[in-house]
């Protein structure tokens, strides 16, 4: 069986700049991932076949980002039993509130772990996927711990500069 990987899906190439934060986190933690542009609305058949195929190839978690009527994460969640993390994006006049509600308000039995709108959410989606994979990968768990410690050290260092 191939190594578990994370699938990073986005509804449009216009989502790519925000999703870069997700991919940076996955890269920094040495987690294999695939990135794909596919839309619940514009390419429903491609979305369906990709999810089924990725599932069968060892995808351990799906990260799905979309803006406006953001149905990508919910659609994917309906097609797999793997964890699905949804990132709502600010892509229109409602500044992501539309995408937030579309992503988070799933019917019972089909969960989407929804993170914050935009860049912080994109980053956290990477960390959340990492933490899911780390449940069965102690070396990855150690890398996440080291990353947390570095994060804390950076805050302490910034405060020390402020106090100097
Ligand atoms: C969504 O519509 C995409 O995820 C994107 O956030 C938004 C706008 O897409 P484009 O019109 O920029 O392709 O499906």
From TrEMBL:
Q: Name one GO molecular function term.
A: lyase activity
> Pfam families, alphabetically?
AIRC (PF00731)
Catalytic activity entry? 5-carboxyamino-1-(5-phospho-D-ribosyl)imidazole + H(+) = 5-amino-1-(5-phospho-D-ribosyl)imidazole-4-carboxylate
**Quick one: which residues bind substrate?**
12, 15, 42
Q: Which GO terms describe its biological process?
A: 'de novo' IMP biosynthetic process
Alphabetized, the UniProt keywords read:
Isomerase, Lyase, Purine biosynthesis
- Cite the PurE domain residue spans from the record: 4-155
User: What EC number(s) does this enzyme carry?
Assistant: 5.4.99.18
Kindly report, in one word, the top-level EC class recorded for this enzyme.
isomerase
User: Which pathway, per its entry?
Assistant: Purine metabolism; IMP biosynthesis via de novo pathway; 5-amino-1-(5-phospho-D-ribosyl)imidazole-4-carboxylate from 5-amino-1-(5-phospho-D-ribosyl)imidazole (N5-CAIR route): step 2/2
Gene3D superfamilies given in the database record:
3.40.50.1970
For whether the record's keyword set contains Isomerase, the answer is yes
Q: Which PANTHER family match?
A: PHOSPHORIBOSYLAMINOIMIDAZOLE CARBOXYLASE (PTHR23046:SF2), PHOSPHORIBOSYLAMINOIMIDAZOLE CARBOXYLASE CATALYTIC SUBUNIT (PTHR23046)
The UniProt family comment states: Belongs to the AIR carboxylase family. Class I subfamily.
NCBIfam families the UniProt entry points to = purE (TIGR01162)
Q: What does this protein do?
A: Catalyzes the conversion of N5-carboxyaminoimidazole ribonucleotide (N5-CAIR) to 4-carboxy-5-aminoimidazole ribonucleotide (CAIR).
Q: What is this protein called?
A: N5-carboxyaminoimidazole ribonucleotide mutase
Q: Which organism is it from?
A: Sedimenticola selenatireducens
Which lineage is the organism of this entry classified under, starting from the top rank? Bacteria, Pseudomonadati, Pseudomonadota, Gammaproteobacteria, Chromatiales
Which gene is annotated as encoding this protein in its UniProt record? purE
